[in-house]
Amino acid sequence: MLAQARARDAADPLREYRAHFALPEGVIYLDGNSLGVLPKATAGRMAGVVRGEWGEGLIRSWNSADWIGLPRRVGGRIAPLVGAAPDTVIACDSTSINLFKLIAAALAMRPGRKVVLSEPGNFPTDLYMIAGLEAQGLAERRLAPRDRIADALDGDVALLLLTHVHYKTGEVFDMAALTRAAHEAGALVLWDLSHSAGAIPVELDGCGADFAVGCGYKYLNGGPGAPAFAYVAQRHHAALEQPLTGWMGHAAPFAFSDDYQPAPGVGRLLCGTPPILGLSALEVGVDLVAEIGIERLAAKSRALSEFFRTCLDQAGVALELVSPPDPMQRGSQLSFRHPEAYAICQALIARGVIGDFRDPDILRFGFAPAYVSFEDVAEAVRHLAEVLETGEWQRDEFRERAAVT
Amino acid sequence: MLAQARARDAADPLREYRAHFALPEGVIYLDGNSLGVLPKATAGRMAGVVRGEWGEGLIRSWNSADWIGLPRRVGGRIAPLVGAAPDTVIACDSTSINLFKLIAAALAMRPGRKVVLSEPGNFPTDLYMIAGLEAQGLAERRLAPRDRIADALDGDVALLLLTHVHYKTGEVFDMAALTRAAHEAGALVLWDLSHSAGAIPVELDGCGADFAVGCGYKYLNGGPGAPAFAYVAQRHHAALEQPLTGWMGHAAPFAFSDDYQPAPGVGRLLCGTPPILGLSALEVGVDLVAEIGIERLAAKSRALSEFFRTCLDQAGVALELVSPPDPMQRGSQLSFRHPEAYAICQALIARGVIGDFRDPDILRFGFAPAYVSFEDVAEAVRHLAEVLETGEWQRDEFRERAAVT
Would the CB atoms of A55 and B136 count as touching at under 8 Å? Predict the structure, then answer.
């Protein structure tokens, strides 16, 4: 496997980009994807922001370093990665907060309809943010299994909220078809792109999507708890009303008036003062992904995950695949079901192979195409085969649950 | 003035702390307070978080570096600065977002009442977040001038929302008296401590306050757009329901269940994934302020602002003071009204004296007691007197408004 892997790496058009990431010694990072690797340029950028922009520039940096423009600037760089026009994306707050804004905005645009439709087993925060509006009496949460979503789109549905790539299985929804189905039912659509952005091609404008949100700390390499992003289709900009009407979303924040007037376009999605440290780190990660380009990333992602499966076959490892076998039908990950997934994951981490576990029984491997190599994949499979063969995952230390799993 | 200032500095018990801050060469920083100065320790901490915790530790740092505990840990350090029990404060999101959570929570605790009472001219985001809930049909915003607030507390008022130290004038509300008045009217109280925390003593528990929010980037020196904090009195923990029910506020976030169950205590105020870079920087700033202690900070703050007024007198500068003349009645700032406040502020900045302007005619000087010296004050007044005497503020370059004022 190793020779084959090395040959693939030598032929990989993205091989030079691995050097742009600070991969720790002795680690094979197949986290899938809870936190992208640190781009090497980020440390220097952060030192510059901290010592220079904050330390030396102080409040002057809102103008001189264009801190005030950061949310729109980073959003504009994310836009082409998700098939969106530049002025339709903004970087701000968290995915959860952005979900709240856009679910509420959609409900306001569909008076008389209260249902927000999603699927059971969607990423929890998506479901919880609907529940938050439900507790306010403003929404009604309806869940339908993914093969029944089209049937559940009736005249009560204001919004269809789906995660494009499922966080556990990696399964991809047909964005174009479901967006069309929702629109035919008179509903709007909000796509959560947390496991898509920077990993697989997305065509928000092309599919006629209404809204989207996504995460900055996964394939965009923005760092732990990085700011998220939000998309609003151009045609909705004028009508958009969201309830988190903080001062930075005001048309003239520094006029300090008592009454709220929304900023034009996606600027009205801003709420509080933008997190400059987090946005600066995110900008570095996004720039790197944008430089590589999403088509090349997606092609390598598919090659990596297919190679992982080839290696499993060659190593004689039989694990129950819960991701779609067709690489065009899944995100940049492979997930397997095993009753001892947690302990196996821990045993792999002890060997320096970092994948992740998702409760209760999912072992997830992600293939961040910007920095994962084919050799990483071959070596990870070798370790996985050894962990399963030796049964070393049975040690007590690997079964004790940490606070964060 | 200078000799007097130097004598005061020599006798200042906090003089050693100035060396803990990275004050830029040639700058007198009397920003009042839009952004606290960089603590010297922050640069090292951020490099460690970026290169070590993120770069080397990757997802393992959620456990090994206790990223998951950061919001509660930083909140626990802020608590004594605002007179709160340790488990009643958490660091998260922005002040605006935290206002939304707690206004909504208060409304849910006072069914049948919809009015949120505040004052005109409160910091805009406080008023706008009420407006956001008003647009949702859940709140009714009522504004009463500060001398009429007690009269406006009728049986429709669910919540009194006030900013403890006014951002423009520095005037301080009597927290104990207004909290009592609100409670007598059956209302709850939410205090915005953005210009109080780290500058003047606050007794949230002692005053019987219900809720509070505050900013991390002013006197807590957390950096540009730092995470904010939120306080909930212990007696409300069990009943607290807020609508931004993200996965990190769940009792068991890593169980990934479809249904939301709030975490115990202030943990349920968390929403999305915590911003680790911002929280780490904030922790350094808070630790420094906590080490100095709020009583010593407040005493020096009063001495500095009184010395500023003495220097003005000695320099023969007559400016209209809009802050209360009694230092016990104001926050750590002095504000003056002048029709050319913007241009004067810009002329001072050109001389290295950074105060700030607040639309339309306020010139504001803040006295962050942890690092501002008496010599800073004397020198700032000398520059101010020269700017006014020479009329150099009349230059065109000082009248052109920047994006951020």
Answer: no
- Note the pLDDT tens digit of each residue in B257-292: 999 999 999 999 999 999 999 999 999 999 999 999
Same domain, residue pair B161 and B202: yes
Q: Rg of chain B's alpha carbons, rounded to an integer?
A: 22
**Residues of A tagged active-site:** 123, 192, 217-218, 364
| Record: contact B254-A100, CB cut-off 8 A | no
| B149-192 per-position pLDDT tens digit | 999 999 999 999 999 999 999 999 999 999 999 999 999 999 99
Task: Write the CATH number for A181.
Answer: 3.40.640.10
* Pair (A136, A216) in one structural domain: yes
CB-based burial of residue B165 (10 Å sphere; 0-12 exposed, 13-18 middle, 19+ buried)? buried
Q: Is residue A332 part of a domain?
A: yes
Marked catalytic residue, from B17, B211, B217, B342: B217
Distances (CA, A) of B43 to B49, B217, B276: 10, 16, 15
B367 is catalytic: no
CB-based burial label for A177 (10 Å; 0-12, 13-18, 19+):
exposed
Under DSSP, the state recorded for A28 is: E
- Considering only CB atoms, which chain A residues are within 8 Å of B259? 127, 131
What values do phi and psi take at A330, rounded to 5?
-135, 160
* Residue B203 CB neighbour total at 10 angstroms: 13
Tell me which chain A residues have a C-beta less than 8 angstroms from the C-beta of B242: 132
What sign does the dihedral A355-A358-A364-A366 (CA atoms) show?
A: negative
